[in-house]
Amino acid sequence: MRPQHVAFEDIHVGWRRSWRRIISEEDIQATIALTGDQGGYHVDEDFARAAGFRTVIAPGILQASMPTKIGGELNFLAREISFRFLKPVYAGDALEVTMEVAAIDGEKRMVTMEGQVTNQDGEVVMTINTHGNFPHPEWGIPSKPPPPLP
User: Fold this and answer.
1) What's the predicted TM-score (pTM) here?
2) Contact yes or no for 108/116 (Cβ under 8 A)
């Protein structure tokens, strides 16, 4: 399935996109393997509980990666991103990321977006601010299909 790319001309201040994902134990283990983050919060249940969590938590980069799906639909090239982690994320949590265009510089094709990730209880687990640019129209839209999901 090809991604649904959105043209720069079709966005405006207030334009929003959301998507939802249930975080699995496999997602957490794959993130740990990819990043090498072996922090006790992510791999040691006793350590995580002693730190005040109910069990091990997902590495922050897992939920921080969620806005990139929306960025990919836009062919948005992030130049700066800031995250604020507010609540832990556990295997089984249903996360929803929502991104909204906050500002547009049409001449430079630059966009500022703000967003948040909420869990199944409606709690904000992370906020996002990002600034980046859109491709020039003469570059076209990528035609190579994405690789299949594992």
Assistant:
1) 0.87
2) no
